[in-house]
Design goal:
By secondary structure, the protein is mainly beta. 11% of the residues lie in helices and 41% in strands.
Length: 141
């Protein structure tokens, strides 16, 4: 199995279609307070790099959420679309957006020091605190 796959998906109303040319086959979860506020729970995402095609971009709203990242959602139906690093244009696309979850594996949880105690995942994954994420990737939120 390849480490990357072309994946496509769309928002709830279908106004925005996204094609990620090089989507990872790994799913990550972010437990930071900002992601939990944005998603109503942990952010479950797939690293899709910068080679992403967005059809219906005129229906997309981008929110400048920090010095290093922005978040996007459909302005028609409200579907959260992605978290994007400003410097590299690297997209972390919400896993539920994709038409297929075939060949995906849950392997990483970040900001584990901010995870509330009322939930946990059964899968064994790599775990990183917020400080570890910031040290490794130079940002976080």
């Amino acid at each position: 199995m390849s480490d990357v796959t072309e994946r496509g998906g769309h928002c709830l109303c279908g106004a925005i279609h996204i094609t990620a040319k090089h989507a990872s086959n790994k799913v990550g979860a972010c437990h930071c307070s900002m992601c939990r506020r944005w998603c109503g729970g942990p952010l479950l995402e797939v690293d899709c790099g910068s080679d992403v095609i967005i059809d219906g971009e005129e229906h997309m709203t981008v929110f400048d959420s920090s010095e290093w990242a922005e978040r996007a959602f459909c302005s028609k139906c409200g579907t959260n679309l992605f978290y994007r690093l400003k410097g590299t244009q690297q997209h972390q696309i919400l896993v539920g957006l994709f038409d297929s979850s075939e060949n995906l594996a849950f392997d990483l949880q970040v900001f584990t020091d901010e995870k509330p105690s009322f939930y946990s995942f059964a899968e064994k994954t790599d775990m990183m605190t917020g400080a570890e994420v910031i040290a490794k990737f130079g940002g976080g939120d």
